[in-house]
Amino acid sequence: MAAEPEVLDELHRLRARVPQLTGALAASVDGLVLAHDTPGVEPEGMAALTAAALGVAVRMADATGQGDFRELLVRGVDGYVATYAAGTSAVLTLLAQDRVNVGRLHLEGRRSGSRIGELVEAATARGEPVTPARAPTRTTSLPTRARPARGTSRTSTTPTPNTPRTSES
């Protein structure tokens, strides 16, 4: 995506405006990294978790009649994770220290989300793909694990017939 350097510049400017930010990530709504400034955090994993959280947030807002998704805030013991809509096809996720001014976080996060949304939509209008120009690299593949079928036990036990018992009087 040709807008990737511009999105990354926006993330850097955002981190300069809010010094308590420890990371910033722009991703597509389906969990692909567009740009990131996330020292010490795997961006692909963070983008995937953002997409999962976004799915729940969108459904919750819809089910409760609150309208379209705008933002999501999670507070942990050591800080915040905030996700903001960035147009219709991207999101901005920010990591912040516990001492951040949450009002400032929202103000700057909303502004940057709007700017990133404009950059992504402009790139899309020019016919550029919304995914990053290079695929994420992995040096090793993740191990796969066979999962038992639904309704089956993980341990090997002798199955018992599923017949109801009746009491005879």
UniProtKB/TrEMBL annotation:
Residue spans of biased composition, Low complexity class: 129-169
Chain spans, region Disordered: 122-169
Coiled coil feature spans: none
InterPro entries referenced in this protein's UniProt entry, alphabetically: Roadblock/LAMTOR2_dom
Boundaries of every Roadblock/LAMTOR2 domain copy: 8-96
Protein name: Roadblock/LAMTOR2 domain-containing protein
Lineage, highest ranks first: Bacteria, Bacillati, Actinomycetota, Actinomycetes, Kitasatosporales
